[in-house]
Amino acid sequence: GAAPAGHDEVEFSSPPSAADELLDADHDDDAPLRFRRIDNIIGPASPLGFVPRALVAEELNAVSCDEPASFAEAERSPSWRKAMVEEMESIEDNKTWALVDLPPGRRAIGLKWVFKVKRDEHGAVSKHKARLVVKGYAQRHGIDYDEVFAPVARLDSVRLLIALAAHEGWEVHHMDVKSAFLNGDLEEEVYVEQPVGFVVVGKEHKVLKLRKALYGLHQAPRAWNAKLDDTLLSFGFRRSPSEHAIYLRQHDGEQLVIGVYVDDLVITGTNNGNIKRFKEQMAAAFKMSDLGLLHYYLGIEVKQGARGISLSQGAYAGKILEKSSMTGCNPAYVPMESRLKLSKLSSEPSVNATMYRSIVGSLRYLVNTRPDLAFAVGYVSRFLEDPREDHLAAVKRILRYVAGTQGWGLWFSRREKEKPHLTGFSDSDFAGDVDASKSTTGVMFFLSGSPITWQSMKQKVVAKSSCEAEYIAAANAASQALWLARVLSEMQGTAMRTPRLRVDNKSAIALIKNPVLHGQSKHIRVKYHFVREAAEEGLINVEFIRSEDQLSDILTKALGKTKFHELRKKIGLININGEHKA
Prior knowledge:
Elements: H1 71-74, H2 78-93, E1 97-100, E2 111-119, E3 125-134, H3 155-168, E4 172-177, E5 191-192, E6 207-210, H4 220-234, E7 238-239, E8 246-251, E9 254-261, E10 264-269, H5 272-285, E11 288-293, E12 296-297, E13 300-304, E14 308-312, H6 314-323, H7 353-366, H8 374-380, H9 389-404, E15 408-413, E16 422-428, E17 440-447, E18 450-458, H10 466-492, E19 500-503, H11 506-513, H12 530-536, E20 541-544, H13 561-570, E21 573-575
Parallel strand pairs: 16-19, 19-20
Antiparallel strand pairs: 1-6, 2-3, 4-10, 4-11, 5-6, 7-8, 8-9, 9-10, 12-13, 13-14, 14-15, 15-21, 16-17, 17-18
Helix pairs in contact: 3-10, 10-11, 10-12
């Protein structure tokens, strides 16, 4: 099933998380961008230019033809009229604005209605949502807004939270703050025009002075986050020093952990009674939707059971296949041919770059529950700037593999009789990149056997030997290990066992454990010697592992069918739906 030549774009958002840290795009100097759902803020463009902003739809759903493009179109529908009235009532109940004359020298910013159909994990319409959005692009920095940053939980952190809950047998709950941004208090003086369809008769010349934030304001995410932060602190929580979107409360040996992603709260802890009381506190402070046990979060399907918790993105994978015209294609057993070598200097004809970036951007988000795709997707991400037919053929091979494994995902086991422990695997190929002779780092960490973080990334420097490449990979892994250990200790409320890092290169291990710089290592950048310091101080235990048992091998190169399937099973991927074709 080849994509037709005229198919320009796949209508999906790219990762709203730290997915860009999981795999390799050839943008070494670019910091990964993070953004929020379109119904929360009309914000910056998608990361790395994968998807035009107009195509970003709420909760990763495809843009629906049932969503009106204008107020005039929406007012003809009873469902959309009701949604607009509900939005106005919410704004007015919250005392968001006051009707005033526009002061001399000031200007009023325009408002726009945005309409979105909200869908459940099965793709069915669950709600019509109308948002009154400020045309934030008209704001002037230093006049209409100042600071704009607001932290959101990395999906690494959310997976860690869910894996810990599965390990301990805790329930994971989900709450959503209704019209969250309307709760944020504004420090700046901002005026907006009256909304179309709701202009006060006889006072058409007046404007609205905002007391609180509206969607679309540059400062709205920060204002809401500050409000939520103050509220949670008043409830006795403390914010994690290592992950500012994780909140923790410990009392009489009971632990309660909250993960925040804008207006979504993921809640878990040792005592269900504490979870219930927290929900009551939140309902008293804000208008909340109690969604019960977590089953759908940012496009990720969550299934909780007595034996553990699974995470998958089967519905999202199906939409990628549909929008790339690959539904019903012949499935592939592996995502990439084992001896495939691609180059930026390819002489093949060019392909539609927007289409290529859109498909790859969608696949990058799929990697959040599919570490088996990380290397292949990272590899094709190196050619975003000028994709050619051989690059697109590799992408289609990945899609064929996805088609055969659509129902696969992660499994987190219940092991409450064991003390949680972190084990990491770091690996590297040597000079596998044909254009720059750089090596590829593969790092993966497990919480008591459950996969929580993984990374497939082209190294930023050229390694002179396989020993050096493995040393650089271990340095990246050491940094990840210490961060995970800190966050996990905070979530548990107790100290963690020293993380173990498994490396399959004895020369690299010797280099790590030798505190004396010598000719073999003196040229290596200082930042990579962090792993040596961490090992010397006992912050990590570096262990040798045989190459055949190196789980991160799946993140550094394309493997043959037998080895790939063996590692896929070992890293914790399972067929959630019980049937597969690859």
